[in-house]
Amino acid sequence: MERHSSKWYNVQSVPQSYTFPPEERPGETPIIQICHKIPVIDLEKSLVSSSEKMETIKQLLQAGQEFGFFQVINHGIPEDVMSQTILTFNEFFDMADEQITNVPARKGWIYTGSEQEVKDGVHLWRDNIKHPCHPLEKCMQSWPDKPASYREVVGRYVAEIRKLSLTILELISEGLGIESGYFDEQSQVQLLSANRYPPCPDPSLTLGIPKHFDPSLITIITQGNVSGLQVMVDGKWVCIGAVPNAFVVNIGNQLEIISNGMLRSVEHRAVTNSREARTSIALFVNPTPNCIVEPTKVLLNESNPPLYKFILYKDFINASKAFGIHTDAIQKEA
Fold first, then answer.
1. Please, which domain of life does this record's source organism belong to (predicted)?
2. What pLDDT does 327 receive?
């Protein structure tokens, strides 16, 4: 079976197999529609003084409460690491058909739009590669070896994201009153998913990724210089702007559980555009498989009882798969 074709999207009109039902289509939502409400948080300020650190924590918690999303700048990851990683994935997706076709299955899950059926025969408008990232040194050996720089560049990127994830989770932990270092052993950068969304002749009919919740603690995303990520805000879909050298961070189901609903996991999706290709890279920071996920006890009292049942993370994932990949599987107390 052909696993990749760089020509599948070179069409004059959207094929029926890529056309979503009317109720699920993004419709006429211009890509320039930007949500200026989503906070952009300067992490460097948390290093200036204790008062600036507390202000940063306040901003993180408020963004998690109101939107479930925020962007971070001055995060400590070198600009060249970000740009080289984007360039490496662009090179990967641009490789000749036969080069990608010959990538062994064990080196990642590579999908084209024609292979990514959502339901009822409808396909996603994207090329995608997924692969595990933990433990990093072991996983790197099974990553693609073309382009030649892939393992080195992407491995360095994942290591940097690991450090950033711990910084963000530590600040959130302090805001929630959880002991310092709680997430050091309880979290892993488990999965990378990189997407190439080609230009689409009619973006109002297609989706790069349908609406969903992330089953992670947090997800850290770079979307380059092209917007396309949309989040549900006040019942409306709005785009998150592509801020130079910023990372988009969203709260996942597990952090919603741990915070007992104080932080929200929010629906989001990816739309296409007719002008240029867009590349995004998402890294999913998850609990360890045997970690018990439950509301942190420091937040619980008579007026704030637990809203969620405790569950092993691996059982949560299995339940999510049973209900479908885009189903919110949070188990609330009856």
1. Eukaryota
2. 39
pLDDT 10s digits, 284-331: 999 999 999 999 999 999 999 999 999 999 999 988 765 444 433 344
CB under 8 Å, gap of 24 or more: what pairs does 320-325 form?
320/215, 325/212
- Contacts of residue 78, defined as CB under 8 A and 6 or more positions apart, other chains included, come to 160
Name the amino acid, one letter, at 326.
H
**Contacts from 143-146 at CB under 8 Å and sequence distance 24+?**
143/107, 143/108, 144/92, 144/103, 144/107, 144/108, 145/107, 146/92, 146/95, 146/99, 146/103
Between CA 116 and CA 198 the distance in angstroms is: 15
Work out the number of other CB atoms within 10 angstroms of the CB of residue 36. Answer: 9
pLDDT of residue 69: 97
Q: Burial, 108: exposed, middle or buried (Cβ in 10 Å; 0-12, 13-18, 19+)?
A: buried
Whose tokens are 């999510």? That residue is: 320
Q: What is the pLDDT of residues 168-177, one digit of tens each?
A: 999 999 999 9
Alpha helices in the chain (DSSP H): 50-66, 79-94, 97-101, 136-140, 150-176, 253-258, 313-323
Q: Which fold has domain 16-323?
A: Jelly Rolls (2.60.120)
Under a CB-based contact definition with an 8 Å cutoff, are residues 132 and 121 in contact?
no
- The domain spans of the chain are 16-323
Question: Whole-angstrom Cα distance, residue 255 to residue 262?
Answer: 9
Which residues of the chain have a pLDDT value below 50? 1-6, 30-32, 323-334
